[in-house]
Amino acid sequence: MKQMHLAAHFPGVNSTTVWADPRSGSQIDFASFEHLARTAERGKFDFFFLAEGLRLREHNGRIHDLDVVGRPESLTLLNALAAVTDRLGLAATVNATFNEPYELARRLATLDHLSEGRAAWNVVTSSDAFTGENFRRGGYLDRADRYTRAAEFVATARELWDSWTPDGTPRPFAHTGRHFDISGEFTVPRSPQGHPVVIQAGDSDEGREFAASAADVIFTRHGTLEAGQAFYADVKARLAKYGRRPGDLTIMPGVTVVLGDTDAEAQENATEIRHLQVSPQNALLALEQVWGRDLSSYDPDGPLPDIDPDPESDLVQGRVKVADPLAVAAKWRALSEAKGLSIRQTVVEATARQSFIGSPRTVAGELEAFVEAEAADGFILVPHLTPGGLDDFVDRVVPLLQERGSFRSEYTGTTLRSHLGHAEPVWKG
Amino acid sequence: MSVSGNPAVPDGPTGTENRTERSRMPATRPLHLAAEIGGPPRYDAASHVALARLAEGGALDFVTLRDSFARPGLDAAAVLARVAPETARVGLVPTLTTTHTEPFHVSSAVATLDWVSRGRAGWHADVSTTEAEARLFGRRPAAPAPALWQEAGEVADVVARLWDSWEDDAEIRSVATGRFVDRDKLHHIDFEGSTFSVKGPAIVPRPPQGRPVTVIDATTAPAGRVAARHADVVYVRASSPEQAAALRAEVHRSAARHGRDPQAVRVLVALTVDLGDAETAPEPGLESGPQLAGHGTYFRGGPVDLAELITQWYRAGAVDGFHLTPLSPARDLERIVNGTVALLQHRSLFRTFYPGGTLREHLGLTRPANRYAAPRTEAAS
Ligand SMILES: Cc1cc2nc3c(=O)[nH]c(=O)nc-3n(C[C@H](O)[C@H](O)[C@H](O)COP(=O)(O)O)c2cc1C
Q1: Is any Cβ of chain B less than 8 angstroms from the Cβ of A30?
Q2: Residue B122 vs residues B62, B68, B114, B215, B346: alpha-carbon distances, Å
Q3: Are A36 and A389 in contact (CB under 8 A)?
Q4: For chain A, how far is it from start to end, CA to CA, in angstroms?
Q5: Integer angstrom CA distances of residue A222 from A99, A231, B47, B104
Q6: CB B213 within 8 A of CB B232
Q7: What angle do CA A276, B170, A20 make, to 5 degrees?
Q8: Do both A49 and A111 map to the same domain?
Q9: Residue having the nearest C-alpha atom to atom 19 of ligand 1
Q10: A77 and A194: one domain?
Q11: What local confidence, expressed as pLDDT, does residue B8 receive?
Q12: Average pLDDT of span A71-86
């Protein structure tokens, strides 16, 4: 049977995380991170994953206060986690727009040394003037520029990671390109993985092409079977152009799992979680994100607004914009009319993202079916509770996967690259 | 220049056991000791953990790890984050440079170090003056030290403002209103510096210490001005207790000129120590010749000689403590802890355990009030 890969996404600044549950713990104490990382390692996961946001999200000019706000800086946190884990990969999301190659390559190589080969970098490119207000470089890059910068950034980082000789002597480097013109000596010897694992999360044509050319792992949002298969086929087909084979790029959608003793109980649990995720205030907010208008006077338990969305709105800052608000609004209205749903009920249904719902046996079977059907090579699990959100999965689903031979029972290597089955990159002198 | 109070001021660093026995008395202010654990580059976690634990065994206030883009070595903040879960009490103070690093990232990294160490973080602010370092970034040419220190002062300011940009009780988790935070307790800082601006608020909640400890080496004039204004711990370089006392008085005066309470600044004498191969070197003491290791005054001798020097300067009321940079940490730190520190503890001059949990507590510094919070009924001191 095909082997799947699994990763644990720390819950936080998103609308999946339920902070109001009495079991929900601190979003910032180290103990929470340690708990989830140890759980993931107990389950023999490939890696632990941290997202990043470089400016607190705002809504209508004020800090968005309905979801979790605040988190630690990823690389510093992962270095600490390296002390309390042994085999688990440690993946940090770090923006390529608001960092410089020399410094970030050094920080990543450092994590790879200190964790003995477990570092990964999720290269994100989000950039807007809003986030830029926290940085020297400020400003805004359009998508094409963001990805040429990211590609040159990664290529430059690889030059730095390769710049020492095998006997441990630094060699001078010089890189001159459109975005970077730098030279000197790197301060860190080649790290245990050669290069930390590179992850890409971005969906546009430019994003996919960048992933095909440079990434080891893709983190995608395409978590349904059909969308997953289409994405999988599209991205894998792009690899040959870069002299790469399908196995060189691991495709991992971010998914949620809801378990119950029976499938029916799992469905009940899922409905309950949806209602916790979509509070009345969150329902109005979700609506405002589509409509681009202040809808605070509407009743979440009443009908959808008659007015149309404002596609030019800048009500929402610091998160990815809804691509076609008019179309989304039309879909939501149709849903609401067909089923007689209130605003909150509509949002609960329309934004449902729970990917796998069922008994442990059902979920294990579906995960395997996804991998067999080439909709994914594995999954980044996004729990809704901090820090115990994957306890059940690890205790109840992982043993089934192991029994059926679709997931490792022990780590066979020590590095993240070895978990993923990727070769060490060629050392370019 | 005057040296405060103690009548038993010895006149040189060559005292003997007898003299110190006679003058054992409770000190008015506790002695603070810190040690550098860097040295020749090492790329593994274990050796750093071992040295930090050794320092913790001696109940030192904090360990430092110097850093620069100009020479081989791992990122120091990362190393001390890696050390944090394997230690419990000792303060962790990496060097972070302000010239090429985004101030926003400095603030987030140090705040996170404070979270993962449960309140033991500080940072030693430094600048990158060389053309070679500038070329590694390719963003701006090298600049003279005074300009870079002026900017470092602004970075120290912005970093501390970002730490304050969340009030301590901003997280409310109000189920009734659906709100995770009280956004009135999160603040844009709207900082406009001469070379950068930062909007805020921070992405990391206010760290356990409120503000992690800021350390600045004040041995050059432009750095000294920034230290007087922004540092909680200031290093000075002195070759006599009189000189140390004068420097400390000067730090206190300029801190006061900036509206700060001088008692909230700890002045440590920076010494590079070479404990050599013998218990007692032929001629222990401070070397007046060229600086061999570049950080502070150069001391050569045995662990007991070093304890004598610390005892005398401290009893002279000249210093709050010492920051020791062992010439070879792998060799000398063990001698410092088991020789020098043990003797100071025996003389009741230095703590034998940590009464507090945070670095601020070790240093006797209060947790700072938040500048953005509305004043409370009982004003924080
Ligand atoms: C699954 C997924 C996770 C992402 N996580 C982050 C993140 O943690 N931080 C961030 O700044 N951007 C994140 N992004 C945004 C992407 O990096 C990218 O900037 C965005 O998707 C726009 O690029 P695109 O036009 O290629 O999709 C994520 C994107 C995806 C698809």
Answers
A1: yes
A2: 9, 17, 8, 7, 29
A3: yes
A4: 39
A5: 28, 7, 44, 33
A6: yes
A7: 15
A8: yes
A9: A126
A10: yes
A11: 34
A12: 98
A76 close contact with B: CB closer than 8 A? yes
How many CB atoms neighbour CB A233 within 10 A?
11
Find the length of chain B: 381
- How many residues are given for chain A? 429
The verdict on residue B142 lying in a domain is yes
* A30 to B115: CB separation less than 8 angstroms, yes or no: yes
* Residue A244, both tokens: 């790469």
Query: Domain total for chain A?
Result: 2
Containing structural domain, residue B245: 15-363
Closest-CA distance of chain B to residue A84, Å: 7
CA distance A295 to B275: 72
Side chain identity at B61, as an amino acid letter? D
Q: Verify whether the Cβ–Cβ distance B78 to A71 is below 8 Å.
A: no
CATH number of the domain encompassing residue A184: 3.20.20.30
Range of the domain at A284: 279-350
Q: What is the pLDDT of residues A220-242, one digit of tens each?
A: 999 889 999 999 999 999 999 99
Question: Phi/psi of residue A24, each to 5°?
Answer: -75, 125
Residue A313 and residue A361 in one domain: no
| Separation in Å, CA of B375 to nearest CA in chain A | 22
Q: Please state whether beta strands A89-95 and A47-50 pair in parallel, antiparallel, or not at all (unpaired).
A: parallel
Q: Does residue B208 form part of some domain?
A: yes
Judged against a pLDDT cut of 90, whether residue A141 lies above it is answered with no
Please list the alpha-helical segments (H only) found in chain B.
17-22, 45-57, 76-83, 103-116, 131-137, 145-164, 221-230, 241-257, 303-315, 329-335, 342-346, 359-363
- Between B78, B135, B195, which is nearest A76 by CB? B78
Write down the residue that tokens 């940009």 correspond to. B165
Final residue belonging to a domain, choices A298, A331, A350: A350
Calculate how far, in angstroms, residue A202's C-alpha sits from the geometric centre of ligand 1. Answer: 5
Which amino acid, one-letter code, is at A412? Answer: T
Q: Two tokens at A233?
A: 């086929």
Judge if A253 and A114 occupy the same domain: yes
Torsion angles phi and psi, residue A194, rounded to 5: 80, -70
Percent pLDDT > 70 in chain A is 99
This prediction has a pTM of: 0.93
A372 shares a domain with A329: no
Q: How far is the CA of A200 from the centre of ligand 1 (A)?
A: 8
d(CA A128, CA A130): 5
In a domain, A273, yes or no: no
- pLDDT band for position B281 (cuts 50, 70, 90): low
Judged by DSSP in three states, B341 sits in helix
Q: Is residue A267 part of a domain?
A: no
The token pair at A60 is 């209508």
d(CA A259, CA A392): 8
Rounded alpha-carbon distances, angstroms, from residue A359 to A261, A268, A354, B159: 5, 12, 14, 49
A140 reaches B (C-beta below 8 A): no
Q: Is residue A171 situated within a structural domain? A: yes
At which of A350, A379, A406 does a domain end?
Answer: A350
* Spatial separation of the C-alpha atoms in residues A113 and B23, rounded to whole Å: 49
Q: Are B262 and B249 in contact (CB under 8 A)?
A: no
